[in-house]
Amino acid sequence: MTGAPAAAVSRAGRLRWALTDGATLAGRELSRLRREPGELVAALVFPAVMVVLFGYVFGSAIAVPGGGDYREYLMPGLFAMVTFTGTMAVTTRVATDASRGVMDRFRSMPTARSAVPFGQTGAEALNGILGMAVMAATGLAVGWRAHNGPWPTVEAFMLIALMRYALSWAGCYLGLVVRNEQTADQLLPLVFPITMLSNSFVPTGGMPGALRVVAEWNPVSALTAACRDLFGNPGAPAGDTAWPLAHPVAATLGWSVLLLAVFMPLSVRTYRRRGR
Predict the structure, then answer these.
(1) Inter-axis angle of helices 115-141 and 87-99, to 10 degrees?
(2) From the centroid of its chain, how far is CA 235?
(3) 159, 226 in Cβ contact below 8 A?
(4) Contact (Cβ atoms closer than 8 angstroms) between residue 252 and residue 226
(5) Quick one: which of 92, 130, 176, 183 is 20 to 30 A from 98 by CA?
(6) What count of other Cβ atoms lies within 10 Å of the Cβ of residue 165?
(7) Minimal CA–CA distance to 165: which of 18, 26, 13?
(8) How far apart are CA 81 and CA 50, in angstroms?
(9) Amino acid 9: pLDDT
């Protein structure tokens, strides 16, 4: 009769230990940015540059389906793009710590084995929120608006934050597998085709058949469509379309849950095995 409560207490204690150590390591990542402000500045400037560059360069050349301002059409796509490209930031940080022996030092300390992945992904989530705020402020400055009221707007930003957190676990796993910061840096260009082959910048209706199918089932497209729907921005899919674009919020939630279910245990298991 005493085994089950003891086991429950033990599981609760391990979870509390992992979360506490994870929060400490997330704080370490954030304090590192204070010592290396160039990295933080670059991470914050990049979203603002994307808004200005794509908004004014593409804005004069692309017609929005159903009419409307291109910058309002663009902003949800840029939120999605930065969400997915942010994956490589945590990949590079994890690979750098692995290559420089930092993780070996963590393993020699009395910390929970799952704390390092939790700390890395937690820091990335906080960085993502800050970058999202900068991008939103820049969007407001160039004319973007959310038209559906406060609650749908909050839902959209929560959806973006959830996807970014789920993707950070994929980035953490990739960094643990790569274990080399130079290789991690070289993987960055591979992310851009994923973000470009979507509805982020142009409608999918004009794409060739095979590419259109890929774009419509791309999680970037689902997140973009969900944000357009929740923000009330132009570009809602019309007519027959793929399921992820017809139900973008559900599709984005599904992709996020799938990424967490796959890469969270993979990251923790890989980190533990690297220490054996």
Answers:
(1) 140
(2) 22
(3) yes
(4) yes
(5) 130
(6) 19
(7) 26
(8) 10
(9) 44
Cβ neighbors of 232 (< 8 A, separation 6 or more) are 146, 147, 148, 152
Amino acid at 275: G
What proportion of the chain, given as a percentage, has pLDDT over 90? 30
Confidence of residue 2 (pLDDT cuts 50, 70, 90): very low
pLDDT digits (tens, 9 = 90+) for 184-210: 877 777 888 888 889 888 888 778 888
Burial class (CB in 10 A: 0-12, 13-18, 19+), 233: buried
149: left (phi over 0), alpha (psi -120 to 50) or beta: left
Say how far apart CA 31 and CA 27 lie, in whole Å. 6
Residues 6+ apart with CB under 8 A from 231: 75, 76, 146, 147, 148, 152, 153, 156
**pLDDT digit string (tens) for 111-120?**
666 777 888 8
Q: What is the per-residue pLDDT for 43?
A: 66
CA distance 111 to 104: 12
d(CA 118, CA 19): 7
Angle at the Cα of 157 (from 161 to 175), degrees rounded to 5?
20
Angle at 127 between CA 125 and CA 128, to 5 degrees: 60
16 vs 224, more confident:
224
| Single pTM value for the model | 0.85
Give residues with Cβ within 8 angstroms of 90, minimum separation 6: 120, 121, 123, 124, 168, 171, 172, 175
Q: C-alpha distances in angstroms, 202 versus 53, 212, 239, 261?
A: 15, 11, 17, 31
Dihedral sign (CA 229, 235, 240, 245): negative
Instruction: Give residue 184's identity as a one-letter amino acid code.
Output: A
Please name the residues in contact with 40: beta carbons below 8 A apart, sequence gap of 6 or more. 33, 34
